[in-house]
Specification:
4-stranded mixed sheet; about 35% helix; alpha/beta; binds copper (II) ion
Length: about 160
C-alpha cells in the first residue's frame, strides 16, 4: 500500500513539473521530457534530478533563439567590401574584417565600435544591433587620398 502511494506521488509530481516547464519549452524539449517521465515511472527512484536537468536544457534553447549574423568584410584602398550590411534589430552582429593592403580602421560610433586593422590580420567585431536605422561605418585611420570616402552602411531593420 505504501509503495502504491509513493508511486502515485511521484506521478503527480511529474505531471505538475511537466505542465510547469512545458509552457516555455519547444517541441524538442517536450519530447525529451516525455522520455524522462517514461524512464522514471519504470524505475521510480530519481525523479527530482532528471527534472531539474530538463529545465536547464529548456533555458539553453531559449537563449539559442537569438540570431548571430556573421559577415566577412575586406578593407582596402579605399573601400569596404561588402559596403552594405543588413540585419534585424536584436541580432548579434559579428564582423570578421581584414585589411588586404595598408593600415585601416573600422568604426561605427552608434554601437561603440572602433578597431584598428593591420594588413593581413583578421579582426573580429561583435555587437548587438539593438536599435533600428541606417548607420555609417567608416575608416578612422588615415590611409591616403581616398580615406574620407572609405565608408559603408549598416542597415538595422
Ligand atoms: Cu582610412
Amino acid at each position: 500500500m505504501r509503495k502504491i502511494l509513493a508511486v502515485i506521488l511521484v506521478i503527480a509530481f511529474l505531471i505538475s513539473a511537466c505542465t510547469t516547464s512545458g509552457n516555455n519549452a519547444d517541441n524538442a524539449d517536450v519530447e525529451a521530457e516525455a522520455d524522462v517521465s517514461a524512464g522514471t515511472q519504470e524505475e521510480a527512484d530519481q525523479p527530482v534530478g532528471e527534472e531539474q536537468e530538463t529545465s536547464d536544457n529548456a533555458d539553453v534553447s531559449d537563449n539559442a533563439a537569438a540570431e548571430v549574423r556573421e559577415f566577412s568584410i575586406v578593407a582596402k584602398n579605399w573601400e569596404f567590401d561588402p559596403a552594405e550590411i543588413t540585419v534585424n534589430k536584436g541580432d548579434t552582429v559579428r564582423l570578421l574584417i581584414t585589411s588586404v593592403d595598408v593600415d585601416h580602421g573600422f568604426a561605427i560610433p552608434e554601437f561603440g565600435v572602433s578597431e584598428k586593422l593591420s594588413p593581413g590580420e583578421e579582426v573580429t567585431v561583435e555587437f548587438v544591433a539593438d536599435k533600428t536605422g541606417e548607420f555609417t561605418f567608416f575608416c578612422n585611420v588615415f590611409c591616403g587620398s581616398g580615406h574620407q570616402e572609405m565608408r559603408g552602411r549598416l542597415i538595422v531593420q
